[in-house]
Amino acid sequence: MNSEEAVLAAFDQQMRQGARVDGPGARVERVGDVVRQVGTDQDWNGVLWSALTEDTADAAIAAQVGHFTSLGLRELEWKLYSHDRPADLPGRLRAAGFTPGPEETLMVAEVSDLPTEVALPEGIHLRPVTDPSGVDLVVDVHERVFGTDGSRLRHRLLAQLAEDSDTVTATVAMSGDQPVCAARMELHPGTDFASLWGGGTLVPWRGKGIYRALIAHRAALAAERGYRYLQVDASDQSQPILGRLGFVGLSTTTPCVYRR
C-alpha cells in the first residue's frame, strides 16, 4: 500500500471533501469550509468534512446546527476524525451540544493484498440480498447484534436496491433458513474506495470464521469492480481481525450527534 499519509489524504479528498450522496433522496452540499449531507429524517444527515481554524470553528458549528434545525431534522451527526483541525474541535462540538459516540478506527487495506477465498463453516451458505425479504434478514441481524433500531437501514437499503443498486452489495450468511451474520459494502463510483459496513454475527456463531469469510467475499467483489482500497470504521471487536488480514489504522473517527 502507498504511504499511510498518502492514503489518508486520498481518503479525505475522495470520500469526505468530494463526497457523493450515500443514497437516493439525499444531497451533498458544500458551504464554505464544510461538506454536509442533507436528506429526510430517514436519511443520514451530517457533516462529512471540514477545514476549520480556531477563528472559524465556533461560527461554522453554530451555522450547521442552525441550518439542520431550520429544516426540522431531529438529528445531526458531525463525523469527526482525530486528524481534523483545529485540535480542540471535539471540545468545541461538545460545548455546542454534540454528544460523542464510541470511537472507531479508520482502517484501510489494498484490495490486491487481501484474501478473497471464501471459507465457510459446514452448514453455512451466503445469500446475496436483492429484494425486500433479503433486506429484512439484514435488518434482523443488525438489530439483534447491535441492539439498535434498523428502520433507517431498511429504508436506505430498499431505496438503494430499487434505484441505485450499483452503489451497494449486501450479503447474509445463513444456517438453513436462519440468518447468522450480515454485511454490506458501499461502492463509491469515481473513487479508489469501497467501504465495508455491518459485519455483525450472532453470538452463538462467533469465532467460526464467518466474519472473515464475508470480508473475503466483499474483497473479491471489490476487485471485480476495480476498486483499489477497502475502508472500514472498525470497532474494538473487529479491529484485531482486520489487522491480521492486512488492514492498517490511519486515524480514528467519532460520531458526534446533536439532537433537538
TrEMBL record:
Residues 124-260 form the N-acetyltransferase domain. It comes from the Bacteria. This is GNAT family N-acetyltransferase.
